[in-house]
Amino acid sequence: MGLIVAILCGRFRDIAPIVGAVLQIGFFITPVMLSPKLQRVDPWIVDINPFAALVELVRTPLMGNEISPALLHLSLLCLVVGSGLAAAPFVRYRRQIVYWV
Q1: Which sequence spans correspond to the domains of the chain?
Q2: Mean pLDDT score of the chain, rounded to an integer?
């Protein structure tokens, strides 16, 4: 996903502040500081947030727990879909990116 955002921000200069605002909102709804069980948000918001799954993928082994298979599958799905989505614009615009930056 970072490659897609980088291509868009390189081409269109106005997108960088928008990305910053969206990331800040994503930080607030992603359970980075607290466990999802301790937050006062609906569980479905945390479940549909792919960043929450990636944070939990790092946090769970650090806490001494096992990674659930569902979490691992969701992370791998995000990796495969994100790589597929990022490959298309990169292959299409890789020669023009040098001139945009």
Answers
A1: 2-100
A2: 82
Q: What does R_g of the chain's alpha carbons equal in angstroms?
A: 16
Structure-token match 């500081």, residue found: 33
Put residue 5 in one of left, alpha, beta given phi > 0 → left and psi -120 to 50 → alpha: alpha
* 38: number of Cβ within 10 Å: 8
Q: Read off the pLDDT of residues 39-52 as tens digits, 9 standing for 90 and up.
A: 676 777 767 777 77
* CA-based nearest residue to 59, from 30, 39, 32: 32
Cβ neighbour number for residue 82 with a 10 Å cutoff: 15
Cα(85)–Cα(67) distance, integer angstroms: 26
Q: What is the pLDDT of residues 67-90, one digit of tens each?
A: 888 888 888 888 899 899 999 988
Cβ(4)–Cβ(86) below 8 Å: yes
